[in-house]
Amino acid sequence: MKDLMRVNLSEEFKAKYTKLLGDRADNLFKAIETESQNSFRLNPLKNNYQNVQYSLDKPIDYSKIGYFGDIDGNSIDHISGYVYSQEPSAMYVAEVVNPKADEKILDLCAAPGSKTTYLASIMDSQGLLVSNEINNKRARVLSSNVERMGIKNAVVINNSPKDLEDGFEGYFDRILVDAPCSGEGMFRKDPDSVQYWSPEYVEQCANRQKHILDSAFKMLKDGGTLVYSTCTFSPEENEENIAEFVKRHQEMEIVPIKKYPGMEDGRPEWGYDNQDLKKALRMFPDQFEGEGHFICKMIKSGIAGTTKVRTFRNQPTKVEMSYLDKFIKQNLSEIDLTAIFKVKEDLYQAATFDTRFKKLHVLRNGLKLGELKKNRFEPSISWMLELKPNDLKSVYELDDDQFAKYLHGESVMIDQDFSNKWIGLSYQGKLFSWGRYSNKQIKNVYPKGLRK
Questions:
Q1: Which positions bind S-adenosyl-L-methionine (predicted)?
Q2: Tens of pLDDT along 5-18?
Q3: Which of 30, 40, 179, 403 could connect to 209 by a Cys-Cys bridge, CB 3.0–4.6 Å?
Q4: Any known ligand binding at 216?
């Protein structure tokens, strides 16, 4: 039996779910007062990605890369992007989306990035992943997680769903709406959030979700897939919203989702008796080893036409490219970079050159390679977190003491010579930063915002 903790559920909340669930409601309330189940997943984009310090003895059935267990956010596995902490129920969402490598995918409400980074791991750096977050502060967290996981085919944007409608009508093959919700399914993981719950708040969330779903419909290709998910129990935000959505947009068909032990059918009686809602999926913590979740998968009828793409190119000058070429020749093995473009003084390997994105607030388009400075190029940590050891001419393995000092912002003295200036730094075999070598010293270039 898991340890009990105190979650102060309101009487109004209890009355609502007692009416909906009958005798089962007490089991749900008790489950909410137990400790949540922690889990993490691996990152297949990394070199030798299963080589982590955490036990892989408890795999999650419905995730190819998920495991039960705790991780330390200060560990090298986390810092270098080899692992991502994500609760078990949420892992299944990306598996249901099931993106294909050559597709255009939209994660419409993407922060903090758990589902975006999972989608990217399935796509294996192919196709286009657009990760949007309306809140600027959360969008920056999303961008930092995309960086840490070494993702190069993503565009991170900070816009409202409404902003995207006109330019991206019928554009995406698959769209995930992991909608902002009342969060009832996460009460035991975040007990403080209980205080914000009210019937009015649930209704407010449901209304917001309706608009987000309508925006998603406009941007989805004919024949495309829309996956809607929430971390709440609320019928208003789940079955009711989906029933109303497919009634408004009769081109949308609810399709079955494979259900693993503990997963349950959606409830037609909670969605105007639409029997197709049985094909949706619910996870309740009294029956499932994870938090509360709802997932519904829908297909848009029709056959997709060709999407016209107009491109832009903010190319560096020949002189600027020569600085990058010189850096590559001196510090990297044979590596072929394409789709290079310039934003202010930064050089990126673009995920897309589609002009539609010029109208948006883009935080990251593909992989940031580094910055042009006076007569030289300096690499970014984003690039290091995407590279493999074989891509580098020189890699230095730090010991425990050196690693702690470097994370703290200190330079490191070494007993080794390198012929090149910029070297990869690794710890426990995992690349995590550049180092600038000079006279048996590795000068610290670790970003100040990441130092510990």
A1: 109-115, 133, 178
A2: 678 899 999 999 99
A3: 179
A4: no
